[in-house]
Amino acid sequence: MKLSTKFISFIVIIHLVAVGLSLYIFQKEPLFFIASEVFILLSLFIAWQLYNEMIQPLNLLMTGVEAIKDRDFNVKFLKTGKYEMDRLIEIYNQMIDQLRTERTRQEEQHFFLEKLIHTSPTGILMMDFDENITAINPKAQAMLSIQADAVLHSALSSIEHPVLQALSHLKTGESRTINFNGLETYKCQKAHFMDRGFPRYFIMLEELTTEILAAEKNAYGKVIRMMAHEVNNSVGAVNSILDTTISLEQNQPDVTEALQVARDRNENLNQFMRRFADVVRLPIPHKEPLNISDLVMKTASLMSSVAKRQQIRFEFNFSDNDVIIAADVSQMEQVLINVIKNAIESIENDGTITFETTHQPPQLLVIDTGKGIQKGIEEQLFSPFFSTKRNGQGVGLTLIREILVNHGFGLSLHTEHEGKTVFRVRF
């Protein structure tokens, strides 16, 4: 029962009792009875006035409470001239002003934080109390090549992505460097903040690939330039002596042949060093519009004779929409030639190489049915001078990496299962 109802009931009962008593006591004295009734009516009037003065602050308070409940901090009250009411109104108005100021400050901070996260050059994943992803900023989506809709409200461990799988094992406050596909390197850190008394976790991803590759290239570039300088100086001088010696008429045929073999070997050494130097001297890409499907068809036609000799078939699965990129045509052609060559060498005989493009996201996949990549070496594939071939120099994949990284494209190479190895370029 409401307080107002209780008060009215009490007043009514009291005055009914008073009327009954006055009738019983003064029924033989009409003047006293009339006087008592006037007094009772006056009491009712005063009680009604007191009721209004008592209930008005409560109604005012309830109106304010409803406004706060609806998060409307613009409702303020005017003073009435009554001390108690004015004191209550003054306190309420001060409280509303403070709440409005705090709410404005909180919203400004919230919008600033959202803007900061959205434009941050660091990838950020926000999680709820149960460690399900609630937000992922554009940088993290670009770094991991995933769409927000595909991962929101999901636990890290439930998402089939190697980097997210690794992140699911991070502990709060822990920082770790993760290498993905032997090429992409991320510095990951997990932390938390308190929200309504419970910890909420977030993970920051910083891509170190570019910095690591630049430092790596600077290191092996110095070695290659020094080796090339020494080899070129030595080969040039030795070839000059050999040319002079070969031209002498008194040479025996077997001596001349041996000298020619030595000169040819020197030339091979020179070509060998030139291949390494090409990686260091790779020019800046001259970008122009390029249709990936056209490039694939052109390069596949160029390599078709080699594939046919080994009974290897080419299959094409292009998206309905053409994938148009800005790239250096000759450099991208060199990438594709090396990829196809590696796929042919992996298959050896009788297999299939499938070229596939997707428009959203824009990417190219080269899938072969070869023997695949041995476990334990996937992380070393793009390391300079690393090769699994008996006479390999480890230049092909390094050149591919340099060209694609210079273009700003992502790449990966891994065996999904036996008979399916995928080279992926993300534009």
Specify the number of helices.
11
Q: How many β-strand runs?
A: 12
Query: Biggest sheet: strands side by side, in what order?
Result: 2-1-5-4-3
Mean pLDDT, as a whole number?
Answer: 78
pLDDT under 50 segments (min length 5)? none
Helix and strand element order: HHHEEHHHEEEHHEHEEHEEHEE
What share of residues is helical?
40-55%
Biggest beta-sheet profile: 5 strands, antiparallel
Please state the overall shape, judged from the principal axes of the Cα atoms: rod-shaped
Task: Describe, in plain words, how this protein is organized in 3D.
InterPro entries: HAMP_dom (IPR003660), HATPase_C_sf (IPR036890), HATPase_dom (IPR003594), His_kinase_dom (IPR005467), PAS-like_dom_sf (IPR035965), PAS_fold (IPR013767), Sig_transdc_His_kin-like_C (IPR004358). Its main location: membrane. It catalyses: ATP + protein L-histidine = ADP + protein N-phospho-L-histidine. One of its GO terms (molecular function) is ATP binding. The chain crosses the membrane at residues 7-26, 32-51. By secondary structure, this protein is an alpha+beta fold. It has eleven helices and twelve strands. The strands form three sheets. It has a five-stranded antiparallel sheet with strand order 2-1-5-4-3. Strands 7-9-10-12-11 form a five-stranded mixed sheet, with helices on one face. Strand 11 and strand 12 form a beta hairpin. Helix 7 (209-246) runs antiparallel to helix 8. The longest helix is centred in the first third of the chain and has 40 residues, at 30-69. The radius of gyration is 42 Å and the shape is rod-shaped. The two termini are 71 Å apart.
